[in-house]
Write a structure and sequence with these properties.
homodimer; 339 residues; 15 strands
Chain lengths: 339, 339
């Protein structure tokens, strides 16, 4: 990996089912130049997120499709190395949608300056970035938990889920996490302060969920979909709220299995189910970031990161999301010297 | 029908599938007496509502089951004919859960006095009663329509649906009603001021809905369920809201057909689906009733009633709800002299 060329990860072909490493390819391009009003950014970290699976379909699906041969999309943080805008200095640290590449150009108006004093740079893509805000809005604005209520979060050991559970704990809720390994279950309870954790890879999900939620479920923060959602819905309380953040178990199928109508459960339980995207709440970002920063710097929220080195390993990191290989935020460290 | 005995409609057996008249029976009992703190009410009108189907299952389902041999439940209006409470005078007009019978006793604390000057007495069970409030809360609090948005209501010619559409029209929405006959479609447009009406008993529901909703669907007020809901969900806009009031098409089946997960649609469209019951908003009743009364007395909301005479015809009126026999509020006039 040299600075002479711009290493990029491109979409080689459309995944069929669960993505594999061979769906992506590497390419070396020329380092771009900064036009007027643009900056060239050398990426330090790029983000690897489950939502990206939705951008790999031929048809639009919560965002425009990535074209075959196109650099894989994604958020990143990095340093401005050339600028065509007097208001943006070389050396500044910024966040933007750089894609999986070493160098990216962007309109300076689309770059966000990052305060590196608050926390390590990588957190700008995790607990103090999109995943943290997603957790904050989905739980507090969509889920609207009250102290003493039971909150269940799926994908609980992931970047979003781990923040959801800790915010719910801060708000005085009983917090139950669902994840896929015993080690992650222990992590949720021992490290993150969840009240209980349930491993969904058993034959006893309904019973385990009932044992973890003796007073039923008031709020679901849903990242997974499929059978786990059905099991949770069987145990919701009157006036429950279900925040639909993702459905990682169903991202790979165009036609998911049929289920009993969710409308029937929602009608009977006078409950609410709502899909959302972090951008829906962008006007509250300042307030939300202030709260998250306070919780992280005071140690009330702890976070983990799963970091791979080098863009050569980005595809494998992405594929690993769908088998639950990561704990906490999955990142690619593009430059070895990044903090 | 004499005043010497108390004619009652009782549940004779549990309906299998769509209720039939033979599921109910008539009984003559003694006229009850008023104990301390109670009143005896002679019913003038009793209400016949789709929700009652849910009370006929053996298992609880949005309310306790009616027992075999028990007087059929339901709201009514009538006149106090005996009182064991100095604060409640004989001759007062009241509303309460009297059931389908000529005379009922009730604790006076559970009776609501009705102002007969505002509108005909029957409206206290319709547009100025539970159905009107259901329309008001479901549309405004759950659906939260904004002027210019497209609102689609199912069961649109019924007691609730016809009020929903007119409130939405008052709020500046494009209003589309779905119902089951061409005559009802004309009624919605010609009499109630809907912008368009769609007859679901065709082979072209998707196309007809698309033609009626050229800008997509922002709010659904749902009384029916099943295929009609699926068709509407295929055309919802980003951030749509679905208020689940009822599912009359599915009240008769313990296990409705499987469908694609509603969660998937809600996730993709960042939409919200919520079940509710009129009681959920009881603390706003005064404000809501003031608004409804103003709209009705000023002629901004018009209403229809389908009235049968005599408790002997209550069961047939109830059964008729499920084939769409009624237009507007279905009532039983218990006393011929009622206004």
């Amino acid at each position: 990996m040299t600075a002479a060329t711009n290493l990029q990860v491109v979409l080689a072909r459309r995944p069929v089912g669960v993505p594999v490493v061979e769906d992506f390819g590497l390419r070396e391009s020329a380092i771009p130049e900064a036009g007027a009003g643009e900056a060239v950014v050398r990426t330090a970290f790029v983000s690897v997120d489950p939502y990206m699976r939705g951008r790999l379909w031929e048809q639009p699906h919560r965002g425009d499709p990535v074209a075959i041969g196109q650099v894989m999309i994604g958020e990143g943080v990095g340093e401005v190395v050339a600028s065509g805008d007097p208001a943006m200095a070389v050396g500044e640290t910024v966040r933007g949608y750089f894609g999986w590449q070493q160098y990216a150009t962007a309109a300076t108006g689309e770059l966000e300056r990052i305060d590196r004093s608050a926390a390590p740079l990588s957190t700008a893509l995790g607990v103090l970035g999109m995943p943290g805000l997603t957790a904050y809005y989905g739980l507090l604005e969509v889920g609207q938990p009250r102290a003493g209520e039971t909150v269940v979060v799926t994908g609980a050991a992931g970047a979003v889920g781990s923040a959801v559970g800790q915010i719910a704990r801060i708000k005085g809720c009983r917090v139950v996490g669902i994840c896929g390994t015993e080690a992650k279950c222990r992590h949720l309870v021992d490290d993150l302060g969840f009240d209980a954790a349930v491993n969904y890879r058993t034959d006893s999900l309904d019973d385990d969920l009932a044992a973890a939620c003796p007073d039923g479920i008031d709020v679901i923060f849903e990242n997974v979909g499929g059978e786990i959602l059905e099991a949770m819905l069987r145990q919701i309380n009157l006036h429950a709220r279900i925040a639909l953040c993702g459905a990682i178990a169903q991202y790979h199928t165009a036609e998911p299995p049929l289920v009993p109508p969710h409308s029937r459960t929602l009608h009977r339980r006078r409950a609410r189910m709502q899909g959302f995207l972090v951008n829906d709440f962008a006007e509250q970002d300042e307030e939300a970031m202030a709260a998250l920063t306070e919780w992280v710097t005071s140690g009330q929220i702890v976070y983990r990161e799963s970091i791979v080195d080098g863009l050569e390993n980005a595809a494998a990191a992405f594929v690993g999301l769908f088998s639950g290989a990561n704990t906490g935020k999955q990142l690619v460290r593009v430059r070895a010297e990044s903090d």
